[in-house]
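Me: I'm a chemist; would you kindly supply a protein sequence with its structure tokens?

Assistant:
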Amino acid sequence: MTERTPHRRRFAAAGTFSRREMLCRAANGFGGLALTALMAEASAAAETRRDVNPMLPRPSHYPAKAKAVIFLFMDGGPSQMDTFDPKPRLTREAGRKIPLETPTTVFNISDQIFPSPFSFRRHGESGAWVSELFPHVAECVDDLAIIRSMVADHSEHTAANYFMHTGSGFQGRPSMGAWITYGLGSHCRDLPGFVVLDSGLIPPGGLDIFGSGFLPAAYQGMLFRRGQHPIADLEPRETTPEHQQGKLSLLRKLNRGVLERFGAVSEVEATISNYELAFRMQAEVPGLLDLSGESAAVKQLYGLDEPDTEEFGRQCLLARRMIERGVRFIELLTPKCPIDRWDQHARLEDGHRLNARATDQPIAALLKDLKARGLLKDTLVVWGGEFGRTPTAQFHADPDATGRDHNPFGFTMWMAGGGVKGGMTYGATDEYGYFAVENKVHVHDLHATILHLLGIDHTKLTFHFSGRDMRLTDVHGEVIHGILA
């Protein structure tokens, strides 16, 4: 019996195809083209999806005055009547009983008036009062909006730190930096959008005060510790760049294989994005930390040549360099001093002098440097602690050991740049500096104003969690229009 030649074999030699084979090949080809197009579209779409590229810059609600924020957090609570809010009546009535009904504070303190051990002078064209503690910042008062009427809800450090950073005294809420990067993303591709520069002390409440809470983890603050290796596990373990590139190439190939097999999965894509950011940071961070390209004049301006100012001066200079690279939110922490942070329950004069000595020159240098480079106009700088101090004495039996207790009822913060009206003082406390009595500014108002300057309506920056739309300002907050330029 003669074997019949299949159509496929019979026509292949002649360079033609059977109808069945032509349809089969054409279908596979069109499918491949379709798959290629879909993969390309998915890849392009991934670059614009928040779950894949969480720091992609996003439009604000309205034109912004500020592009970035530097928060100079004075952990512990600087005393308002010893820094920017002079109270001559304390000197006139030193040692007397304060004629006010005072609230309960954290510790059992006396009711005796404690005058400021520091002198005050007017500075700048604005004539703002500044303590002798800040001779360098005093040179910048015409760029500052000094808010003397801040109020907060908590008088204990941990809850107050959570409140200042997250708008809630409870642990687990997103921090201000997390909300801002969630709302706006970041212009920096090779560094995190929210960076915390550690100068030696992590405030009470720990790293959760910089956390992302119920927002995606990508928005939490990245802690840069002191030293040449500020980020744990960032240094490559491979012996040569070629070895590392080989491993990364293999990782990318495996990742592509997962995506091709299972399709676009946001968790996988986000993980790939995080690994790629870490890789880019390996190249970016050493250059960021290398200050050899800065002039001797700039280093001297920031106090890098003085042991008392070197640490915080370096952090302030790094903050300026991060602003130049497009980082959205940068927080600087109080440097470690021999008498702790600004929390002087005892030996206030010594403690405030040491803390001011460590921070005054670097902060002024940051303001001057940003301004000289044209960066201050769209960089919002915020200075302050979680609360202020009482005008009455603690440990009053020993004049050399006298300090002040916590006071959230009236304290001072200041803001500069980024759409703020410089050379002004806003609000007031009573004659003793205990309570805010004029133009009170609640922490929720401060948050609303910071968001406003960034072009964000604080009532519209929300995240649905636990059955309702959550926001940084909760259900409160009013923009402080009186300090806006």
Observations:
- Residues 66 and 180 are 12 Å apart (CA to CA).
- Residues 1-14, 35-47 have pLDDT under 50 and may be disordered.
- Residues 19-46 form the longest helix (28 residues).
